[in-house]
Specification:
- By secondary structure, the protein is of the alpha/beta class.
- It has four helices and eleven strands; from the N terminus they run ααββββββαββββαβ.
- The chain has helices spanning 3-25, 49-54, 144-149, 211-220; strands spanning 80-83, 93-96, 101-105, 110-115, 118-119, 127-136, 174-180, 183-192, 201-203, 207-210, 226-230.
- The longest helix has 23 residues, at 3-25.
- It starts with a helix and ends in a 35-residue tail after the last strand.
Length: 265
């Protein structure tokens, strides 16, 4: 074989190897803490055993959960351990409204990150509070003001006893109730059957999660857990505000008098 053909083949093999190394180096993006935290999405293979198990069926639940088609969700919103961008104490929950993330802070600068759906502009609450209590498969009882605006909800009114727990219940498989200074903020962290709304602002003031994710978080969060609702994309703690949403208020469990109601969707 001519010497120049040998050299040409060696060059092509070397070029292919360098290209492969270059692609491997671009396969992930390192998380970092900055004043304006805006992580880039990371590509995930469509077929992934780990994700299939994470978002697969939950037949042992009181109402068996169907599998989530995770391939249709932006990979940035998958449950994952990341470098903590919040600076909060371990054990704290941080809702980052700027990026549609919820963090559960751990030791050694780590945090479990979940994708969430959030309230539309004007219906959000920001500040510090605690998880006063939590409920598995809760009932949903829309307040009378909401029923007056949406008569089709009459069958789920407080007087009617609310909506039974189940796969179609807006509070999903679990709910965690945020209080501030001993008062109900009317702000909830809860599951949702509408997995396609994760990463969007469509509900009225509450933090909605994929049901499989809220079940995971529920087991990690004891009563009394501190919660921070802020905007890391905007540089830190969002301005303190009063509650404007009243979509998931349950009678007899407290509330802030005079809080303006807002539609659920």
């Amino acid at each position: 074989m001519p010497q120049r053909d040998v050299c040409r083949r060696s060059f092509l093999k070397l070029s292919a190897g360098m290209a492969a190394l270059g692609l491997a180096g671009c396969g992930s993006t390192r998380e970092r803490v900055s004043q304006q935290y805006a992580p880039e999405p990371e590509p995930v293979p469509a077929a992934n055993t780990f994700l299939s198990e994470m978002y697969g069926e939950r037949p042992s639940e009181l109402y068996p959960l169907p599998a989530i088609p995770y391939e249709k969700i932006d990979p940035r919103y998958y449950r994952q351990m990341v470098a903590d961008p919040t600076g909060e104490q371990p054990g704290t929950l941080v809702v980052d409204v700027g990026n549609h993330f919820l963090y559960r802070v751990y030791e050694n600068g780590q945090a479990m990150r979940y994708g969430v759906g959030l309230g539309r502009a004007g219906f959000a609450w920001a500040g510090r509070g605690v998880i006063q209590y939590k409920r598995p498969w809760p009932r949903w009882k829309p307040p009378n003001e909401m029923v007056a605006r949406q008569p089709e909800l009459q069958q789920y009114s407080i007087e009617a006893g609310g909506m039974e727990p189940g796969l179609k219940n807006p509070l999903g498989a679990r709910a965690m109730y945020i209080f501030q200074n001993g008062e109900d903020t009317l702000y909830r962290i809860h599951g949702s059957p509408e997995w396609w709304t994760i990463g969007q602002s469509v509900s009225s003031g509450c933090v909605r999660m994929i049901n499989q994710d809220v079940v995971d978080l529920y087991d990690r969060v004891p009563n009394g857990t501190p919660v921070v609702v802020t905007d890391l994309l905007g540089g830190g703690m969002a301005a303190q505000g009063q509650v404007q949403a009243q979509d998931n208020l349950l009678p007899g469990e407290g509330g802030i008098p005079g809080a303006a109601p807002a539609p659920l969707y």
